[in-house]
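Q&A log
Question type: sequence-to-structure
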Amino acid sequence: MLSSSAADPTLLGVEDTYYRAMTQQLRGELEDARGRLREAEAKLQLSEQERQGWEGKYRHLLAEQAPRGGIPPDAADLLRRLTLKEEAITALKRTVDEQAAKLSAAKDAAAAHTAGMMLVKHQLKTLQEELTRKSNERREAVEKLAVAEDKLALQIQTRADLENEMEELRSQITLLQLASQGKRQDRKDEEDATGHSLSLSFGSNGSVDRIMQLENELDDVRTQRNTLQRQLLALQRQVATMPSALADPTAANDTLKAHLRQLEKEKEQLHKQLSEVLERVEIVQYRNDDRAGVEAAGATERMPESTPATATHMPRPPSDRSRRELVLLSSLLLQYGCRNLLLQQHQVLLHGSRAQEARALAARQRAMRLNPARDGEAEDGKGEGGFSGSLLTRQRLEVEQGLLETVIHGRRPLPPPPPPPAKEESVGSEFWRWLGSKKKSQKQVCV
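Response status: OK
Response body:
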């Protein structure tokens, strides 16, 4: 009974109620027995007093009749009454003994029930303490579960963001690889060109500077592609170390599907924009080729016969493939610059002092948008260890301006600015200058 009551609080409550009712009943019976015992004791005492009185009267009569030598007529009646009183006293004594035995038994039963009730109370107290401890453990477990759910939701969101960044980086790497392949093919085509066109291309300082600029941009694109590949590998390692979302797979799948749909929409928009830009570039190239052919024909007709042969060899405009390559490279640089700024802002908001660095970054971006020349000066002052956001912003602004002038408005691109005077010339620049002077001298000798 004790093991079952300790296991079930309902049984403990029923048993406690039963013990309380039985104790109250036994106490009532004990009080009744005590009342009957007191009543019997009073009757016994009264009978004893009457017996003593009748015995006194009997002895007094015997003492009075002894000298006379006879028995009085009421002596027999007195003896009969005395005998009856003796029997009544004996019966009352038996009743008193029985009531005393019942009283002792009731006392023992009441003591046993009191001990049982105390044991049940102790078990109830122990059970209440156990329930309190279990409730505290349950509350702590619920709090830990809430914290774990928050962490899991944060990890799921972080994983989704990382997967989105991985998709974006893959698309950017693909575009950079396509651009590098196009540059490689164009370089092969330029190497297969005739020596005359090569001498002409190397004969003008602007073309040499433009080629050097394109090679530098190609190196920058390759560096950016390698950086993006390293970032992609790092993101893949982070995603691989993260736990899978086992708590709510349906919600995680819905979230991933929504992100995939959003990425598909963005991809379609980018393809559409790229196709529109390519169409505009082809239209502008067609117009420029027609205009250049008309001007070249008019200049040839107006040219006198005494004009030297070197004057006819003017620098030709860049080919369609190079123009398309420039547009692709410019759009890639523009997209990468914007993406780099967004990633820098996201990184600062995540890992820096959020409020101060976010305000500083916003102020820096506003300053870059308002005054790009100041960004250029700041970039020149920083040198190699400067912040790359200003350089990317300046490139983005230059690309936007060039696209507005060449593609949208249909103007001819301005000649590239002369390179700034360097304090220490590199070996590559000396080699290109020597090669250009050598080609120029060979051309003069041929003439």
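Response note: The chain has a mean pLDDT of 66.
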